[in-house]
Amino acid sequence: MHVPDGFINAPVSVAAGVAAAAAVAVSLRGARRELDERTAPLAGLVAAFIFAVQMLNFPVAAGTSGHLLGGALAAILVGPYTGVLCVSVVLLMQGILFADGGLTALGVNITVMGVVTVVTAHLVFRGLLRVLPAGRRSVTVAGFVAALLSVPAAAAAFTALYAVGGTTDVPLGKVLTAMVGVHVLIGIGEALITAATVGAVIAVRPDLVHGARGLTAPLKLRVDGVLVDAPAAAAPAAAAAAGSTKKVWVTGLVTALVLAGFVSFYASANPDGLEKVAADKGIDEKVEEHAAAGSPLADYGVKDVDDARLSGGLAGVIGVGVTVVAGTGIFWVVRRRRTDDLTATATATPVA
């Protein structure tokens, strides 16, 4: 659903850019409460994983494909504020390096694919957890539904922006029906990927899943027939389980590299939902050439590498590497700011 330059006029693109910048600023502040020394590196990994899976277009209808948006997945794994930042990092890397998503439309894409998907998914996810039985299965089920609904919500948000800033004269009702219709189908794929990923992480490290916090009950000991909380020293296994995230990080990174570097070659070549609707309805009549069209990595291929499989694989690996480095760096700085704030609060001298 990457919106190219030319679909939305300049005033609305600027307004969307301001809204996106404000959302990122709020998210930077909110992410301080979500990130710690264990989850900050994983947030960069989540961004890289989303980048990799977005390269895997899957067929959803005749001549149409879809791909993961990732807002729901990021919100559940690392929290809504950090989730907005994850998707924003991915979109920035895609726009600058791979000419995917217009640069003047970057604010539109962050608003539609980042903010709307994350907010929708977070609200649905939290609402469902309030009524579903407490447990890991409920987290997976809630994640499935949240991801499913987040995609047509993003399609509706694009239609709203097109309604006030579209550069072509296409009946709004036709755009809305086509966009929401095809993206409901894409949402099913999004939901399956999100549920599978969340379920896999919960199975091995539920403590690292933001949406699953509070599910792990404290260790209890039976003393004289009464259950009491176990002292910290009596729970070494629990402490070990909450320790290093190195294994999870390495496994996730290798998975992302394999998906982007190898599996992506087998992705559907059909246009995605927005591209198909734009071509069918005439929305793309005034599309503009991407400012980074001459990038060595444009269109997810390495310039001057003739073998398509090798070119696409190298581009995917480079993209994962750049995204994980950029994302981890950003989230590490955010975490350090949180540490500095906590230190300042703890050392502040009370005023009499």
Give a quick summary of the entry.
By secondary structure, the chain is mostly helical. The chain is built from eleven helices and four strands.
Structure write-up:
With 352 residues, the chain is mainly alpha-helical. It has a single domain (10-233, 243-346), classed as Arp2/3 complex 21 kDa subunit ARPC3, CATH 1.10.1760.20. The protein has eleven helices and four strands, in the order ααββαααααββαααα. It has helices spanning 10-34, 39-54, 71-78, 80-97, 106-131, 136-165, 172-204, 236-241, 246-261, 273-281, 308-347; strands spanning 58-61, 64-66, 220-223, 226-229. It has a two-stranded antiparallel ribbon with strand order 1-2. A hairpin with a 2-residue loop joins strand 3 and strand 4 (226-229). Helix 3 runs parallel beside helix 7 (172-204).
How is the topology of this model organized?
Layout (H helix, E strand, L loop, with lengths): L9 H25 L4 H16 L3 E4 L2 E3 L4 H8 L1 H18 L8 H26 L4 H30 L6 H33 L15 E4 L2 E4 L6 H6 L4 H16 L11 H9 L26 H40 L5
Antiparallel strand pairs: 1-2, 3-4
Descriptors:
single chain; 352 residues; Arp2/3 complex 21 kDa subunit ARPC3; globular
Going by CATH, the architecture would be Orthogonal Bundle
Query: From N to C, what is the helix and strand string?
Result: HHEEHHHHHEEHHHH
The level-1 CATH class: Mainly Alpha
Number of domains: 1
**Helix content class:** 55-70%
Sequence of strands across the biggest β-sheet = 1-2
